[in-house]
Amino acid sequence: MKRLDGKTAVITGGGTGIGLGAAKRFVDEGAFVYIFGRRQEPLDAALAQLGPNARAVRGSVTDLADLDRLYGQVKAERGGLDILFANAGTGSFAPLGEITPEQYDQTFDINVKGVLFTVQRGLPLMGPGGSIILTGSTTGVMGTPQFSVYSASKAAIRNLARTWALDLQGTGIRVNVLSPGPTLTELALEVVGEEGLAALGATTPIGRMGDPSETGAVAAFLASSDSSFMTGGEVFVDGGLAQV
């Protein structure tokens, strides 16, 4: 029997990168998956790979009406929600002295406010056995030059999980953080560049960049009952970058 048979999952930022890697693994493990993102073209391309046990909903995690439309569709079609992977995020480099209010607002609106309301709006659909996964980052526990705003947003995610684990006591719903290191995704390529990612990957004990499928495999573990005694924690899939 597959680990996620009969489960319903929502993945934000699910059209590309880690979100798509997780969606593929969730479907392979037996789940029915809703991917949520802002751009229709990547969503359509993802659906072509995911097959009949997936749906795509276009919208933004910063728009409460879009989130309500997503969860309304989930409730109408599936009745409830078992797995919520709040994965949508953004980031850009700027050294201290050059950070703009616009950069700060965009990063925290998507990475923190977006995660908060993605979870809060979806929570009424979840019951005992539910799993919430938040995408963190190695930058949340490391100093990273010119990346302070993004890093601070991911440190905030780590504390949200700690606090929500306490808020969710007695509900049977768990919440954990999944923190990737240098991973070959569209966003990482846009922000860091292929050469920068390769150089960063070479600094890990494993000596390379990660693949989204590797992070997706760990997301499936956190989504399943195999991780039933885990909540409020953080799991790094970073090639050892932030561990040694």
Can you tell me about this structure?
It is a single chain. With 244 residues, the chain is an alpha/beta fold. The chain has a single domain, classed as Rossmann fold (3-Layer(aba) Sandwich). Helix content is 44%, strand content 15%. The protein has 8 helices and 7 strands. The chain has a 7-stranded parallel sheet, sandwiched between helices. Helix 6 packs across helix 7. The longest helix has 22 residues.
Number of domains: 1
Note the overall shape. Answer: globular
The helix/strand class is: alpha/beta
Q: Roughly how many Å is the radius of gyration?
A: 17 Å
Q: Treating each run of at least 4 consecutive H or I residues as one helix, how many helices?
A: 8
Mean pLDDT: 96
Distance between the termini: 37 Å
Order of helices and strands: EHEHEHEHEHEHHHE
Query: How many DSSP E strands?
Result: 7
The largest pleated sheet is described as: 7 strands, parallel
Looking at this structure, what is the CATH superfamily?
Answer: NAD(P)-binding Rossmann-like Domain
Q: What's the CATH topology label?
A: Rossmann fold
The residue ranges in which pLDDT falls below 50 over 5 or more consecutive positions are: none
Helix content: 40-55%
The CATH architecture category equals: 3-Layer(aba) Sandwich
CATH class: Alpha Beta
**Widest sheet: strand ordering:** 3-2-1-4-5-6-7
Q: Per DSSP, what share of the residues sits in E-state strands of 2 or more residues?
A: 5-15%
